[in-house]
Automatic annotation (TrEMBL):
Residues 6-242 form the ABC transporter domain. InterPro entries: AAA+_ATPase, ABC_transporter-like_ATP-bd, ABC_transporter_ATP-binding, P-loop_NTPase. One of its GO terms (molecular function) is ATP binding. This is ABC-2 type transport system ATP-binding protein. Keywords: Antibiotic resistance, ATP-binding, Nucleotide-binding, Transport. SUPFAM superfamilies: P-loop containing nucleoside triphosphate hydrolases. It is found in: Cell membrane. Belongs to the ABC transporter superfamily. It is a peripheral membrane protein.
Amino acid sequence: MSDYAIELDNLTRTFRSGQGKTRRAVDQLSLRIERGEMFGLLGPNGAGKTSTVKILMTVLLPTSGHARILGDDVVKQVERVRHRTGVILGGDTGLYARLSARDNLLLFADLYGIPYRDQRRRIGELLDVVGLLKSERTRVETFSRGMKQRLHIARGLLHDPEVVILDEPSNGIDPVGARELRDLVRGTVRNGRTVLMTTHYMFEADELCDRVAVMRDGKKIAEGTPESLKKQTDGQVVLSLDIIGVGEPELDRLRRLPGIRSLSVTAVDGSQRLDLHCDQQTDITAAVMTELRHLSVLRVAKREPTLEDAYVSLVSGSGGTWTS
Ligand SMILES: Nc1ncnc2c1ncn2[C@@H]1O[C@H](COP(=O)(O)OP(=O)(O)OP(=O)(O)O)[C@@H](O)[C@H]1O
């Protein structure tokens, strides 16, 4: 029996991307996830998270390398892997909109081969813990996104899997609903199980995960506890500017300034938020303002880096890997 719940060894998946070129969606990815651990897979769009998860779900074949769940190979022991793994994908697919919550679960209980005598009790318990007992007879097409996500959770736990794969749990859900969902993930979904979760939100991973791995361009560029990721920004400060009209030429010049480690730009209410990750020792405010003198700078502030900054710095940086 394997000591690990999930093991990836040099997992690689390539896709053809037109004109005979190939693209490595997952590139020599190796990971060890302990039993009972809640593990976060992070990365920007296109990093390779979904491809990795699909391989673990046994719906996408790796090009090379191996993936095992509880010691079972995801290519050679598909039935065993599916039986022991629960998949919670969320969104609009995977549920029957014209059926009620309860009828959806009855249908999937049949598909999972749950004995008829156990189905009603199990479904009742799950509807209760995900907070849908009052709406059990309501058609899913009238459900809010948050309610659908709760039903996805119930569906994924029906056969009481030992390992759960959870894709973007709070995607598209309002902040209050997202907080409630995180509580549900922490309690009901985890409940002694191993959970592999993908997310775009660093703070979500920080709240829920024991360890995280950050992917970029199919590769693992960082792995460790959220705490150790935060330490990456020790000795740094963020100079944050709201600005109009900043483009690549200015960003290029800023990147070359001594003391700037990395930078990121996001659109905010008709302007741009430029965050510069700088060494604490060097005050580069004057040099930055000189580079930007031809643009409208609406606001300048200095702040302590957050975990999100550590993540942004990693995925936008020039690529030193970090493991702890
Ligand atoms: N079926 C496919 N055919 C061709 N290319 C693909 C296919 N699936 C994924 N890719 C490519 O592989 C890369 C990784 O995609 P993947 O969906 O795994 O990333 P991701 O980290 O899950 O991104 P997102 O957060 O946007 O879902 C991307 O460049 C994507 O375009």
